[in-house]
Amino acid sequence: MKTIYYIFLILFILSCSSAKVIDIWVSKEHANYQPKKVLVIGVTDNLTARKIFEEDLTNELKNRGVYAVESYDEFDQTFTNLKQNEEDIEREIQKLNNGGFDTILISVVKGIDERTSYSGNRLYKDYYWRRFGRYYYLYQDIYLVEGYYDKYKVYHVEASLYNLKENNDKSLVWVASYDIVNPKKIASTIKNYVTAIIISLEQEQIIPKKIR
Questions:
Q1: What is the pTM of this model?
Q2: CA distances for 102 relative to 37, 38, 143, 162, 175, angstroms
């Protein structure tokens, strides 16, 4: 029953937003994993989007009793602005371990597609109009109306949660991929995306439900 509730909740939220869940994977190696201190990282060259994402997700985790910190408060600016080699990253991980962090939750935009859709009149899917004349009348705007097709972007985004105490090939605890379709406003798009992440983590019992 609880699984059905979460499925309906996810569908309701995502039907009102531009974020769609594509796939979710959870490691069997970490069946009872409970993060204690989480570093939230948004990997993007848009500083505003990064700050909003990290702050929103950090607040949602704190509302569930999970201590969380934004990476832009923890990392030096030089670390995020410059390309790092593996040794540099390992040193940063060691610093996080020394600072009591046991978990990293990171989000990355993995790709962007540009797609095309119909605009204007709705696309008729029934076959009530079986005469050619009526059919042509309905769809002639494809040739005659400028801007009949709309171009929009789909962002392929991935969120992953890692166990820092096992810095090896088995450290991945949870990963989910999402499509963010034609985002208009940064704040509302990120809010919906963060909500989708939180619901998944709650469903997998990685984090507790919101503290009332």
A1: 0.76
A2: 6, 6, 58, 8, 17
Rounded to 5°, the CA angle 15-19-23 comes to: 105
Pairing of strands 172-181, 149-163: antiparallel
- Packing angle, helices 2-15 and 186-203, rounded to 10: 170
How many other CB atoms are found less than 10 A from the CB of residue 34?
12
Tokens of 177: 């991929």
Query: Phi then psi for 156, rounded to 5 degrees?
Result: -95, 115
> Which string of DSSP letters, residue by residue, matches 121-170?
SPPP-S----SHHHHHHHHTHHHHSTT-EEEEEEEEEEEEEEETTS-STT
In 148-176, which positions are buried (b, 16+ CB within 10 angstroms) versus exposed (e)?
eeeeeebbebbbbbbbbeeeeeebbbbbb
Could you give phi then psi for residue 118, rounded to 5 degrees?
-75, 145
29-33, 66-70, 78-82, 169-173 — most confident range: 66-70
**Alpha-carbon distance 81 to 41, whole Å?**
14
Give the model's pLDDT for residue 4: 40
Q: What is the pLDDT of residues 10-35, one digit of tens each?
A: 343 344 446 788 999 999 888 889 99
- Tokens coding 152: 């929009």
